[in-house]
Amino acid sequence: MDPLLDEKIIITIMRNFSDFMKETLHLSADREAYGPSRNEGLCYESCQSISFSGEIEGTLFLGLDGYTKLKLLPRVAERYNISSFPRGLASSVLMEFSNQLGGRILTELEEGGFHLQLHPPEVHDHKIVPFDLSRFREYIIVFFLRDRRQRMYLGRAYLTILFRKY
User: Fold this and answer.
1) Are the beta carbons of 142 and 32 closer than 8 angstroms?
2) 46 CB-near residues (< 8 Å, 6+ apart)
3) How far apart are CA 101 and CA 97, in angstroms?
4) Is residue 132 within a helix (H) or strand (E), and if so which, with residue range?
5) Residue 85: predicted pLDDT
6) Which of 28, 30, 16 is nearest to 110 (CA)?
7) Among the listed ranges 62-76, 79-93, 107-121, 142-156, which one has the minimum average pLDDT value?
8) Nearest-10 Cα torsion for 82, 84, 89, 90
9) What percent of the chain has pLDDT over 70?
10) Higher pLDDT residue, 79 or 30?
11) What phi and psi, each to the nearest 5 degrees, are found at residue 113?
């Protein structure tokens, strides 16, 4: 695969993530860092993945630390009109949020001419997820999340993207 094509896809994902956070949760998601990575895996307190296949194959991981998860969860629940939920369903609420994000990114890529299929999201909370770097290229994007209206810092969101090598 062409590295320039990777960059175009990454730029699409970055823009869509920022727009999605702004439209759904009224939060500012400013890109803090971005780049290729050689990490052999990941582990976050809250982590959801969305796999996709077709002309491009890969996985998008949304990782949050505990602080960010606690700050985002009430906003996500409010967005989906969930007044209360048992403690065990927090992952399901964030998984649905990730699924909506993945759907939006996939739609944008399809409008760009790619034919892709989105697979069901998975939860990897508190789990080590190993990567086979001989089969995948890895990129990490770190976003600084804040509510500008309430002048609140909400933590960081970590997007890790894997693309299958051909």
Assistant:
1) yes
2) 63, 64, 65, 66, 68, 69, 91, 94, 125
3) 6
4) none
5) 66
6) 16
7) 79-93
8) 80
9) 95
10) 30
11) 105, 0
Q: What are the C-alpha distances in Å from 148 to residues 6, 14, 145, 152? A: 31, 19, 9, 7
Determine the distance from the C-alpha atom of residue 103 to the mean position of all C-alpha atoms in its chain, rounded to a whole number: 11
User: Within 13 A of 17's CA, how many CA atoms are on the CB side?
Assistant: 25
Locate 119 and state its tokens.
């697979």
Please give the Cα distance from 87 to 42 (Å, whole number).
Answer: 24
Cα separation, 155 vs 166, in Å, equals 36
Q: Which of 112, 101, 121, 110 is nearest to 22 (CA)?
A: 101
Q: For 13-110, list the strands marked E by DSSP.
A: 28-37, 41-42, 46-54, 58-64
Q: Which residues contact 76 (CB under 8 A, 6 or more apart)?
A: 25, 93, 94, 97
Assess contact for 28 and 149: CB atoms under 8 A.
no
pTM: 0.92
Residue 68 predicted with pLDDT over 80: yes
